[in-house]
C-alpha cells in the first residue's frame, strides 16, 4: 500500500473536523480504510503531527554503533575471542548469529571454535618443503580408469 500524501491526510482530517460526517463516511469518501482514518486521528492526538511514520516501523536493532565499537576494540585486543565470549564481554543480550552478522558486516574476523588453537603471529613451519622427483602430468599412463568407457566411439 502506498503512503498517503500530506495533502490527502490534511483533507481527510479537515473533513472529519467539520463534524458533519463519521469516520466511516470520511474513509469511503476518500477511498481509504477506516483504520487509516483512525490512525491519522490517533497520530494527530498523540504527536500533533500527521506525517508518515515509516522510520519508526520495524524491529529495533539490539547491536548499536556503540556495541560495534566495543566489539571491534575487544577483537583488536584479543583476536581469539569466540562469539559467545564477545557477547558476554560486550554485555549484549542477543543471539550469537546476530553478533556473527554484525562482525561480518564490519569486515572483522573472530575465532570460530573454542577447540581451535590460538592465533599466532610467528612462522608455523621451520623450513621449506622437501624437494622430490618431478611428477608426470598423467597419473594413469594406460589411459583408462574405472570411470572411462573402454568401448570405441562410433564415427
UniProtKB/TrEMBL annotation:
<dbReference type="InterPro" id="IPR009057">
    <property type="entry name" value="Homeodomain-like_sf"/>
</dbReference>
<feature type="region of interest" description="Disordered">
    <location>
        <begin position="114"/>
        <end position="155"/>
    </location>
</feature>
<dbReference type="Pfam" id="PF01710">
    <property type="entry name" value="HTH_Tnp_IS630"/>
</dbReference>
<dbReference type="InterPro" id="IPR002622">
    <property type="entry name" value="Transposase_14"/>
</dbReference>
<protein>
    <submittedName>
        <fullName>Transposase</fullName>
    </submittedName>
</protein>
<feature type="domain" description="Transposase Synechocystis PCC 6803">
    <location>
        <begin position="4"/>
        <end position="120"/>
    </location>
</feature>
<dbReference type="InterPro" id="IPR036388">
    <property type="entry name" value="WH-like_DNA-bd_sf"/>
</dbReference>
Amino acid at each position: 500500500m502506498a503512503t498517503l500524501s500530506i495533502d490527502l491526510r490534511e483533507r481527510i482530517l479537515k473533513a472529519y473536523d467539520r463534524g458533519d460526517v463519521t469516520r466511516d463516511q470520511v474513509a469511503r469518501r476518500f477511498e481509504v480504510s477506516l483504520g487509516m482514518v483512525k490512525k491519522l486521528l490517533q497520530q494527530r492526538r498523540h504527536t500533533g503531527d500527521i506525517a508518515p511514520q515509516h522510520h519508526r516501523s520495524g524491529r529495533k536493532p539490539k547491536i548499536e554503533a556503540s556495541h560495534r565499537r566495543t566489539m571491534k576494540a575487544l577483537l583488536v585486543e584479543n583476536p581469539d575471542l569466540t562469539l559467545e565470549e564477545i557477547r558476554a564481554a560486550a554485555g549484549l543480550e542477543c543471539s550469537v548469529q546476530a553478533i556473527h552478522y554484525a562482525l561480518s558486516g564490519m569486515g572483522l574476523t573472530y575465532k570460530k571454535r573454542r577447540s581451535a588453537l590460538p592465533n599466532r603471529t610467528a612462522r608455523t613451519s621451520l623450513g621449506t618443503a622437501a624437494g622430490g622427483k618431478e611428477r608426470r602430468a598423467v597419473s594413469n599412463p594406460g589411459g583408462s580408469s574405472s570411470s572411462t568407457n573402454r568401448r570405441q566411439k562410433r564415427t
